[in-house]
Design goal:
Elements (H helix, E strand, L loop, with lengths): L42 E25 L1 E18 L8 E17 L7 E16 L20 E2 L15 E2 L10 E18 L5 E21 L23 H7 L3
Antiparallel strand pairs: 1-8, 2-3, 3-4, 5-6, 7-8
Length: 260
């Protein structure tokens, strides 16, 4: 049996832990707490859409030995990746580019002659979808969608004592990351409609090649963790920053304002 040595980053498994780095001693100062106004009173799982995806797949399967007759072919679908990318041309958030990959696991049972043992051969047939999907409910990123990739955009420098340039012994910067709730997928149902063509016969009429033409259909649920629309009222005399992707600016704008 082959050992799986993949990192698991592109499927439903956890991302592997990175290499450990050296640690240094640090001193921690006081902590300040600044509540900000959230967009709702509770976090819910919001269903964005239930969709059917359909594609056609053709594959040639080479059996390990010649077959006189196929007795049974069991088929199961498993997804290895399902990722929804916000549509860059849709500012309403009501559509996503859905990218789905998976395979049809086939268990082929056949006999080589009129008598003898039943042979079993398993194989995976990959497929993929790339589809624009209209949503029933918009994708939400209440704190904004993007982080800063280049920290030098918010670099802070002070002038040197001679006034002729930057102080080479002092530098500062502001970096930030925004963590968004992803659009997630759940496989609800699958269907496979297929024809199997038996080819490459020997002198006794047996075959060792199966050409399969499949119509693959999967039903998916797209959902995202969101907050209810009713905001939490702020206590009297306690100002709270408000972050919005439409009116008052995102949390990224708030961070930019920290350095003027």
């Amino acid at each position: 049996m082959k050992k799986n040595t993949g990192c698991g980053c592109n499927d439903h498994h956890d991302c592997p832990q990175g290499l450990s780095c050296d640690k240094v001693k640090s001193t921690v100062g006081s902590t300040n707490v600044t509540p900000f106004e959230v967009s709702g009173t509770e976090e819910i799982t919001a269903v964005l859409a239930d969709v059917l995806l359909q594609t056609q797949v053709e594959a040639d399967i080479k059996l390990p030995s010649y077959a006189r007759e196929v007795k049974n072919i069991r088929k199961n679908i498993r997804l290895t990746q399902c990722k929804a990318l916000p549509n860059s041309l849709d500012p309403t958030g009501m559509s996503v580019k859905l990218m789905v990959e998976g395979y049809v696991h086939k268990n082929i049972q056949y006999v080589e002659d009129c008598y003898g043992v039943l042979k079993d051969y398993a194989v995976n047939v990959p497929f993929r979808f790339f589809q624009l999907v209209e949503l029933e409910r918009p994708v939400e990123f209440p704190l904004g969608e993007f982080s800063s990739k280049n920290s030098s955009t918010f670099e802070r420098r002070e002038i040197a004592k001679d006034g002729m340039g930057a102080d080479p012994c002092l530098a500062g910067s502001l970096t930030f990351e925004v963590f968004t709730e992803p659009v997630q997928c759940k496989l609800l149902a699958t269907a496979i409609n297929e024809w199997d063509f038996f080819t490459n016969h020997d002198n006794w009429g047996r075959f060792d090649k199966i050409t399969e033409k499949m119509d693959v259909v999967v039903a998916l649920k797209l959902y995202q963790k969101q907050q209810t629309p009713d905001p939490i009222p702020s206590p009297s005399g306690f100002p709270r920053p408000t972050f919005s992707t439409t009116s008052n600016g995102t949390i990224a704008d708030f961070f930019r304002g920290m350095i003027g």
